Give the backbone structure.
Amino acid sequence: MNTRSISFRLVAWYAGLLTTIFLLLCAVLYFDLRYFLENDLRQAQSRRARQIANTLLAHVKQSGETYVVSQTKDWFEPEINDRFIRITRGDGTLVYVSGTPQDGSFDSAEIPILAPAQTTEFSHKLKLSGGNTLLIAALNFKSDGNPDYLVEFGALLDPVESMLDHLFLQLALGLPLAVIIITAGGYLLVRRALTPVEQITRAAERITQFNLSERLPVAQTGDELERLSVSLNRMITRLDEAFQNSQRFVADASHDLRTPLTILRGELEHFAGDARLDAELRERAGSLLEEVAHLGKIVEQLFTLSRLDAGEAQTEWTRFNLAELAQTTSEQMNLLAEDKGIAISCEASQPVAVNGNRVRLKQVVVNLLDNAIKYTPQKGAIQLRVFASNGHAVLEVVDNGIGIPAAALAQIFNRFYRVDPARSADAESAGLGLAIVKSICTAHGAEVEVQSAVGQGSCFRVKLPLALD
Amino acid sequence: MVYSVVEIDKPMRILLVEDEKKVADIIVRGLKAERFAVDVCHDGQSGWEAANTYNYDLIILDLMLPGLSGTEILERVRRKNQSVPILILTARDGMADKLKNFEAGADDYLTKPFAFAELLVRVKALLRRGPVSRASVLRVNDLEIDRLSQNVHRAGKRIELTAKEYALLEYLATQPNRVFSRTMIIEHVWDQSFQGLTNIVDVYVRHLREKVDDAFPVKLLRTVRGVGYSLSDGTEA
């Protein structure tokens, strides 16, 4: 999964944020409820302690301690109601303590007698050996003319704790479930929102120089994505226009140059072939004719490029063996290499089937070999290799020639680009050979790349899709 | 009028429809030097009228014409069911154009800028309606080329040639003394993908020279600078 994709980041943020909010909410709920319930219990106990003090102990002088004890037992029935009640005098001697409740949840004897405190009312929690917790509210009873008493009234905290535990469990189980549902829902929503983006991307990827007339799908939703696709379409329209203009320019220029070239060539041929003229004049005419031929070649290659731009290489496709094509081409060009003492070795024994325009792909081999021969010094070596690799047909032309400077590598396939304008080997070429190679490759959905080191040689590699069986 | 016999003395009559006056001039001059009678029209309308009125042995048509286009003239001539051979001259050489015009009834097609030699070869081929020479043995001076066995002898001595060298020599020998441009040779001996690679012709001619000429005092392979190569039969200076 791509962690940098918009959908991933959106869902991650959204899920993270919601989880945090949920956690906070649960914590507040849990602790607030806990505080509320404990407090409630505590107040109930101290209310009862106050009841004993105000209604019974206030009249202890008249009624006597025995009456207080019997009344307390009657009212609260501590053994039945699981309550703890203890009344002690100010000097620490016991007046009354409730017995062990019927369910045996605590043992009253276990609860220590507190040293008399200064505060009138206080409470404390007591962890018992049986694992239960007792919440005890205590009251220091002082009144003029009466002895001091300490009234303690306690209740088990366990019902509250078990309720809180249950809530905690519910939250702990519910939260991950909620997060999962939220994340899944968020993912689906984001996916739905981003589907048009996916469609626009796919449509944009299909657009190449050969189908600039196509447009991206526009979802009529009135949202940001509609605006995006509309403005992308406008951009493609402008690209299309610019591309057509430059294409038309090349086509027109190469077309319009042909007529004057025909005239120049025709007139000069007359001079060159007229035996009545003196030899030097004819020689000069011949020299001019060579230049006219060179110009003609540039015009021809420009025209070839403009036809390739117009999609010519995408017609007349056949399925053929690239290895065999490379082999015959290298044989046909061998003499050109031998003339410079260069050996061409061709490694293309395995058949490699591709689909394409055979004439144009042959031109790729011719141009690459011609280039290699041109830039490899006497006694050099050129290797031509064709093989299948990872679903691609690969054609490599490797030489040990002068190489290409790193700064020039990126521009080597540009029209009229020359590594060194002063280089003599370039003089007769137009600087269009590699541009033609690139254009033919593009039309075949092929990649062409170059690696080179100055003084060591170059490697041109063409990667074509293999023909499927 | 019935032509039952081709009149040898009567020059072949050619109609040239070409709006570029200078291009027309060059073609007319060249064709006249080859003893053809040539009529020239500089626009489509008069071209069609001339083609409609007279019986020509060959029509050379430019495609981009003011008035009526070359393709329209071609279609009109063919609709009248005329069997006159038509050679198209054009500054466009897209495959689609070529096919369209062949379908409309063009017999041959030449792209500008062309060497006059190319035009002449095509004109002559169209007028004769067939290969220039069908002889099984070509003889040029003391050179003998057997087209069936592909054996080459000079002054009785066997010369070993590679397939491409042989094809090149045979092509030059079909018309001795005629200059063949590098483009013509490339198209005939190699194929379209070698277009623009004319230096390959120079290399082959040099190899051919070593085998055919070096050992003999009379040199048959000639270079005409800027134009091309020819095989001389030794009669011309």
